[in-house]
Structure to design on (251 residues):
């Protein structure tokens, strides 16, 4: 292809040279002018083609940039984040929307948990009867939480179906509460079992089984944390202050 173009160029230049050597005359001048105009036309056509090619390439690049800019501007639809264990961002915001009876009764239910270590800390004395009353109350709360999960699974419209998973896990807190009451002579082991039961019940309600509303999840978390720290405080007081019974043994 390159050799062909070279030959064509040499042929055109040789013709131009021959025409330029014609003798002077009107006919020769006219022929020379016609040839010159034809060459100029060809040259201009060639320049126009090059200009169009450059314009086409520039338009293509501009359109590609425009399309890429538009595509860059389009935002991807973000998937909603999972909210199972995101208590701080979502569920605790709904705590203020809790029904007043549930809020007052829930906080009132912490009084037996908090009052026992508070009395012993004020008197600087460990009372086994108060510690056992706190553990017995914790066992009652565990049975209540298991019953609440059982009752939540019964209605047909409930998201938690009455299958082996839901109903079986509803029984676990009650069994731990019963085992804890068997350790009435060793209250430390009993308190550890109650803390384990509270943690397992909270894990069921927050992550494992489908679900309670956000305000109840937040309320359950607050109540469980306060009850757990109350039991831990009682165990610390047992190992810190002297033991004294509220009722002396009668012979």
């Amino acid at each position: 292809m390159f050799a062909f173009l070279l030959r064509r160029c040499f042929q055109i230049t040789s013709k131009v040279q021959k025409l330029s050597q014609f003798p002077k005359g009107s006919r020769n001048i006219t022929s020379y002018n016609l040839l010159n105009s034809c060459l100029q036309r060809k040259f201009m056509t060639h320049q126009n083609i090059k200009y169009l090619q450059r314009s086409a390439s520039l338009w293509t690049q501009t359109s590609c940039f425009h399309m890429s800019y538009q595509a860059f501007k389009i935002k991807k639809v973000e998937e909603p984040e999972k909210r199972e264990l995101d208590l701080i961002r979502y569920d605790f915001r709904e705590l203020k929307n809790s029904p007043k009876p549930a809020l007052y009764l829930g906080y009132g239910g912490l009084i037996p948990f908090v009052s026992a270590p508070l009395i012993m800390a004020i008197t600087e004395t460990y009372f086994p009867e108060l510690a056992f009353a706190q553990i017995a109350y914790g066992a009652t709360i565990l049975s209540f939480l298991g019953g609440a999960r059982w009752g939540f699974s019964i209605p047909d419209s409930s998201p938690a179906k009455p299958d082996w998973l839901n109903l079986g896990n509803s029984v676990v807190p009650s069994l731990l509460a019963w085992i804890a009451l068997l350790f009435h002579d060793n209250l430390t082991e009993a308190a550890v079992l109650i803390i384990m039961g509270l943690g397992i019940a909270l894990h069921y309600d927050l992550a494992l089984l489908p679900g309670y509303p956000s305000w109840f999840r937040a309320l359950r978390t607050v109540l469980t944390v306060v009850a757990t720290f109350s039991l831990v405080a009682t165990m610390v007081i047992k190992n810190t202050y002297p033991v004294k019974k509220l009722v002396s043994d009668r012979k």
User: Anything to note?
Assistant: Residues 15-20, 22-30, 65-75, 77-85 have pLDDT under 50 and may be disordered. The CA atoms of residues 19 and 149 lie 109 Å apart. The first helix runs from residue 2 to 20.
